[in-house]
Amino acid sequence: MTSTARIKETVTTLNGRRPHLGLVCITASDEVRYRTITRTWLLQFKEAEQRDRLRDLYAANIVRLELALDFCIRHQIGLYRITSDLFPFADSDVGEPLLAEFAADLARLGQKATEAAIRMVMHPDQFVVISSESPSVVENSIGVLAHHAQVLDLLGQPRSSWALLEIHGGKSKRADALIDVIGQLPHPIRSRLALENDESAYSAAEILAVCKAAGVPMVFDAHHHIVKEKLESYEHPSVAEMVLAARETWPDPAWQLVHISNGREHFQDRRHSDLIEIMPESYRSVPWIEVEAKQKEVAIAKLRAEWE
Fold first, then answer.
1. Is the pTM higher than 0.70?
2. Least enclosed by CB within 10 Å: which of 115, 218, 273, 292?
3. H or E segment to which residue 274 belongs
4. What is the CATH number of domain 3-307?
5. How far apart, in whole angstroms, are the C-alpha atoms of residue 132 and residue 176?
6. What does the pLDDT average to over 2-17?
7. C-beta separation of 19 from 286 below 8 A
């Protein structure tokens, strides 16, 4: 079955069912853990040895990616966020050529995910700021996004918002610049790009306006929203309003994805709690939810049990 056919089948299966809950990168247990290295550690070696060590790390992390897919299959988790640290330094002169060596392995894993109806997305880190006033920061950010898009291409994932690249708006009060940069992004990036509201630079309403102007989907995060607006409940009318408004930015409403987390020490605490104790009622109508809780799969299992 082709990737497009599998997507249609997955969306059809979802109709009338509870939302898919997504696993974010690793498990709370040691079952899915990726290797990484620091720049300082890598640079102590000569270039040839740097390549050997990166090659070994990439091979090990591909094994771990398959463990993650197997975990999702066993636990019937339909969405997996791939770690941004899957291939450290793959956007460098040393690491970039190495990815081609693993093309066949990545293609096989991408096919495995497609056949298992697992949607794969990525969320580059906070250092990706395409709205920066600094041209070099924008250039570097686009380079990071290009690497993530390359990984999704190697995994055979579609160039659409099904295989999402999620980022924040970045530098505040730079909406026009953000829209302009998005319009100039290469197709492998722009076709997958989505923007998420945050608790400091871009409110939900502000990022919604950018998404509409730039023609990209909005990933609504209810917790960022209540922190930003200092709300006392996920049942504040603006939460349900933003869920519906964000849905209109998606090319297919059945692809809409949102984030959920709870405050660690109190409701408006920015830090994520171990589990999800409070879920917006409006999220029950959303097809895909990334669960950003510290206890990962434990939080997913708890929500499923409660929703049963």
1. yes
2. 115
3. none
4. 3.20.20.150
5. 11
6. 50
7. yes
